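Thread amino acids onto this structure.
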């Protein structure tokens, strides 16, 4: 199934899935009065792009509208949700699994690819080669940094043990710049493929993507049903072959007290506007399909969202 999906752009795939007759909430005439603030991520990342696409799709809806907020990513969004500073948040499922009990899901929206990026001339071809190198885990408060720590630990590369790399936390843009300038040897990033800023970097400085799946067995033993094997397609960032890596699902989250009417309207947006919620140049696995949207385990669906899925899909 995955190979078939990655052969298409995600927009093309979901245009087929949604069908030419899909109805859009954006077709409504009068906008909803109070936008829901959605905690997203860093500039250049998949979270902020998805938030902007969801905002555009709901801009004219009478039922719900969304205002994207720039943040540091998953863990930051979960904090903002708990502090009631946002109404919705995007999060990697591994970060969400550690969240407070009052967090519920609206849907499983797409898959992130854990990407370990190195300069092609750095002499790094596997995770073990990161030992002794300087590696950016991700931005402080990001899900990428949390996942990267788990991968290093599962690989016997715990930085605190002296056997692992020297780790720093850089914003995505900062990590890209630092790798280009050889101030770091590698960085982790969790996002869609291709990520435009990494593609631009690869045009200036040849880069390689490291296979992270050697850590998958140990990760899955410790955190069941969270991580999956996936593949970055050949051609991404100039790669001549597909690169195995770890996939992590992304969830659209809310607090349990989100009004039922808003939860239902968000479900309708995810279903009806699926083609418009996919970046035109994106490849890989997307979860805006009937079977996948509802699969938010281990985070429970908002009760009204679950009911709406049943009404829409039977």
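Threaded sequence (314 positions):
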């Amino acid at each position: 199934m995955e190979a078939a999906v990655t052969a298409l752009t995600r927009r093309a795939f979901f245009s087929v899935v949604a069908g030419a007759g899909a109805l859009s909430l954006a077709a409504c005439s009068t906008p909803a009065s109070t936008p829901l603030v959605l905690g997203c991520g860093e500039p250049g990342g998949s979270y902020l792009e998805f938030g902007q696409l969801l905002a555009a799709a709901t801009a004219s809806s009478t039922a719900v509208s969304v205002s994207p907020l720039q943040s540091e990513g998953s863990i930051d969004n979960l904090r903002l949700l708990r502090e009631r500073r946002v109404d919705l948040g995007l999060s990697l499922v591994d970060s969400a699994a550690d969240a407070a009990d009052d967090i519920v899901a609206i849907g499983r929206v797409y898959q992130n690819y854990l990407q370990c990026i190195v300069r092609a001339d750095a002499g790094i071809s596997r995770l073990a080669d990161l030992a002794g190198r300087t590696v950016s885990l991700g931005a402080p408060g990001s899900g990428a940094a949390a996942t990267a720590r788990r991968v290093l630990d599962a690989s016997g590369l715990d930085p605190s043990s002296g056997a692992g790399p020297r780790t720093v936390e850089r914003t995505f843009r900062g990590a890209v710049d630092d790798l280009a300038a050889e101030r770091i040897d590698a960085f982790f990033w969790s996002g869609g493929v291709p990520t435009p800023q990494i593609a631009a970097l690869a045009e200036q400085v040849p880069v390689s993507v490291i296979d992270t799946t050697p850590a998958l067995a140990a990760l899955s033993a410790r955190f069941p049903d969270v991580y999956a094997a996936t593949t970055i397609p050949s051609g991404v960032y100039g790669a001549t072959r597909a690169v195995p890596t770890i996939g992590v699902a992304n969830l659209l989250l809310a607090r349990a007290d989100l009004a039922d009417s808003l939860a239902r309207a968000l479900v309708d947006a995810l279903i009806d506007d699926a083609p418009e919620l996919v970046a035109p140049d994106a490849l890989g696995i997307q979860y805006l399909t009937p079977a996948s949207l509802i699969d938010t385990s281990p985070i429970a669906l908002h009760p009204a969202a679950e009911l709406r899925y049943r009404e829409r899909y039977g």
